[in-house]
Design brief:
- By secondary structure, the protein is mainly α.
- Helix content is 70%, strand content 0%.
- The chain has a domain of 103 residues.
- The N and C termini lie far apart (87 Å).
- 8% of the residues are buried.
- Keywords: Coiled coil.
Length: 177
């Protein structure tokens, strides 16, 4: 005589039936993951297994921060590239090739070109810092000791200031073009 062990699915089904009997007054909300394909279900289980919840406000703020910083970084890179184009055009116009009559370039023109180059380097350094700065991590140990939502909302405020500064760069770029 063969004894069959209950499968995992049968155990899950039995637990679901017990829950449904115990929680009859609660409204049942259909989980869209249940109707998803097997790959989406696996991905969802991996996220939930690591404690990630898509619907928590903290996770939305963290994702929004990353998106805003990527956009600001892109805007700063465009501003730096535009400044590099302006510098090249300025060098062509104001720093001609040395000749016998003028073997050395004008000191004021060289100083201006160096100043433009330093501005590009500063913008590039700012872009790198914006792109690589860390986001507050979601660790469960420190989560009870700090209010993560307030920290992330402050971060969103700083992101807004970054966007305004990057837009200022773009307005200068549009005015110079």
């Amino acid at each position: 005589m063969l004894l069959r062990r209950p499968t995992v699915q049968a155990g899950v089904r039995a637990r679901k039936e017990r829950k449904e009997l115990d929680m009859t007054e609660f409204k049942a909300v259909a989980n869209p993951i249940d109707s998803a394909g097997s790959t989406k279900q696996l991905l969802s289980n991996l996220f939930y297994g690591w404690g990630y919840n898509f619907y928590r406000k903290e996770n939305q703020l963290r994702a929004d921060d990353l998106l805003v910083r990527a956009k600001v970084s892109e805007m700063l890179a465009a501003a730096r590239a535009h400044l590099a184009d302006l510098e090249r055009a300025w060098r062509r116009e104001h720093l001609p090739e040395p000749t016998r009559e003028h073997p050395y370039a004008d000191a004021a023109a060289v100083a201006s070109a160096q100043q433009m180059r330093r501005a590009q380097q500063l913008i590039e350094a700012l872009e790198l810092r914006v792109r690589t700065v860390g986001v507050p991590e979601m660790d469960r140990i420190n989560q009870r000791h700090r209010n993560e939502r307030d920290t992330l909302q402050q971060l969103v405020g700083v992101d807004g200031e970054l966007v305004l500064a990057a837009e200022g760069f773009q307005r200068c770029r549009a005015g110079a073009a």
